[in-house]
């Protein structure tokens, strides 16, 4: 998830490349085999998945014995636990003691309260370009140093570097990426329904009908987390309206009352308006948080609460909490083409320095290197925009294919639209786009009403107009 556009976030990416990624590596039938939560990151020993020291280090880090660091992020559960292992390797190599600080969303508000209290973390992982821009405008964020910049230049495409810039300066290091154009499915449920992986939106509706006729609810939707609904919208809108319109709406250069938005919402309503197609109906979806939307799709054998769940590659973390095996029990297909080509929507989390120090700069340098990313890649449910992370670091063929497609896309991707918007519109629970789409899920017949709410909230957040 990410928000607020700046000149460095201009989406210069070509539609042909987005289509190529979707139709190429991601359009493969992804059917290969899959493969302590306290606050102290260094409690885990070496932090490497095998429990031993990491070999083949590509970046030299300073000795920081006696130094302490705090790192804040909104990550929870397995995602947080896996990141702590990365921090533990940093501790092993430098001697710095690192504490993970769980943050609440929106993280900018969380950081504001910490800074007001005189206790900002040293580094924060920000899930929105808009949040980076806000942190710079508030004079919280510090530019990255020469060592981190060298790692970025060596390991990242220009597009991923630019997303972390504000006013031409590098403030964010994108440690984590996401492919948000995937639909995961319970293989047994689709097989029993005689359904195949859809390539188009029309095919998806047919697959949903086959699943429904077999006695299984087609979709699980984590509507309690409004950001999942923005992701649904973005994929439909990008594929249907095209990249140029997507960029215009992301920057509020066209209004949410535009006919293209009406068309996308009307398309979404083809699924959202069918209460029997959603696990628990709309009311149930609005009470289901994202992790549960995934796990309920892969529990219950061939009679799960739902057969399919839309979200990014990171859903693997939650699939891992079930007995389902990625590649056999849990499979995935690219978000189907609604228009001329399938969408490719990306997201990510960037490390930003809030307290400039040798240790903080060293940590961000480490996170920009392949060394850090390889550790978390091996643990699954993680995708790095670092082009020098070997495909072999990913634990299964599904994840390797997704990673290969991300790197192959280079600069040719579209970044999550709500993450480019001001946080007040695109990144605050219970407000703005999140709330407006939750209301639309509750009443998908009121397309015009949804558009009016979205435009009102967008205009206020962007400063009064398109």
TrEMBL record:
<feature type="signal peptide">
    <location>
        <begin position="1"/>
        <end position="34"/>
    </location>
</feature>
<dbReference type="Pfam" id="PF13416">
    <property type="entry name" value="SBP_bac_8"/>
</dbReference>
<protein>
    <submittedName>
        <fullName>ABC transporter substrate-binding protein</fullName>
    </submittedName>
</protein>
<comment type="similarity">
    <text>Belongs to the bacterial solute-binding protein 1 family.</text>
</comment>
<keyword id="KW-0732">Signal</keyword>
<dbReference type="InterPro" id="IPR050490">
    <property type="entry name" value="Bact_solute-bd_prot1"/>
</dbReference>
<feature type="region of interest" description="Disordered">
    <location>
        <begin position="39"/>
        <end position="59"/>
    </location>
</feature>
<dbReference type="InterPro" id="IPR006059">
    <property type="entry name" value="SBP"/>
</dbReference>
<keyword id="KW-0813">Transport</keyword>
<feature type="compositionally biased region" description="Gly residues">
    <location>
        <begin position="44"/>
        <end position="54"/>
    </location>
</feature>
């Amino acid at each position: 998830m990410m928000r607020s556009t700046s000149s460095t976030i201009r989406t210069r990416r070509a539609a042909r490349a987005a289509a190529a990624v979707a139709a190429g590596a991601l359009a493969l039938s992804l059917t290969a085999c899959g493969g302590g939560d306290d606050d102290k990151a260094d409690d885990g020993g070496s932090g490497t998945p095998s429990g031993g020291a990491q070999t083949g280090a590509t970046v030299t880090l300073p000795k920081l014995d006696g130094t302490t660091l705090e790192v804040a992020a909104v990550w929870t559960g397995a995602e947080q636990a896996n990141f702590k292992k990365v921090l533990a390797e940093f501790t092993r190599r430098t001697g710095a003691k690192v504490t993970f600080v769980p943050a609440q969303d929106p993280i900018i508000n969380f950081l504001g309260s910490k800074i007001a209290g005189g206790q900002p973390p040293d580094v924060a992982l920000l899930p929105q370009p808009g949040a980076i821009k806000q942190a710079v405008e508030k004079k919280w964020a510090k530019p990255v140093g020469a060592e981190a910049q060298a790692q970025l230049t060596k390991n990242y495409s220009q597009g991923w570097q630019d997303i972390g810039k504000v006013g031409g300066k590098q403030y964010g290091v994108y440690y984590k990426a996401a492919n948000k154009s995937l639909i995961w499915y319970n293989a047994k449920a689709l097989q029993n329904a005689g359904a195949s992986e859809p390539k188009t939106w029309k095919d998806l509706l047919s697959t949903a009908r086959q699943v429904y006729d077999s006695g299984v609810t087609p979709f699980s939707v984590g509507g309690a987390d409004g950001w999942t609904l923005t992701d649904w919208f973005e994929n439909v809108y990008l594929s249907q309206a095209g990249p140029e319109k997507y960029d215009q709406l992301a920057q509020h250069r066209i209004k949410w009352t535009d006919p293209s938005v009406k068309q996308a919402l009307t398309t979404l309503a083809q699924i959202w308006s069918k209460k029997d197609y959603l696990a628990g109906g709309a009311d149930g979806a609005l009470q289901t948080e994202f992790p549960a939307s995934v796990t309920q799709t892969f529990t219950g054998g061939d009679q799960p609460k739902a057969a399919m769940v839309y979200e990014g590659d990171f859903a693997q973390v939650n699939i891992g909490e079930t007995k389902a095996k990625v590649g056999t029990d849990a499979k995935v297909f690219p978000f189907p083409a609604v228009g001329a080509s399938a969408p490719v929507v990306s997201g990510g989390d960037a490390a930003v320095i809030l307290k400039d120090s040798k240790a903080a700069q060293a940590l961000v340098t480490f996170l920009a290197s392949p060394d850090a990313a390889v550790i978390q890649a091996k643990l699954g449910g993680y995708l790095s925009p670092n082009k020098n992370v070997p495909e072999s670091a990913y634990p299964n063929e599904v994840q390797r294919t997704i990673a290969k497609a991300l790197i192959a896309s280079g600069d040719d991707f579209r970044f999550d639209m709500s993450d480019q918007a001001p946080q007040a519109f695109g990144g605050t629970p219970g407000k703005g786009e999140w709330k407006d789409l939750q209301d639309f899920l509750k009443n998908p017949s009121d397309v015009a009403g949804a558009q009016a709410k979205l435009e009102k909230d967008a205009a206020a957040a962007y400063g009064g107009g398109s």
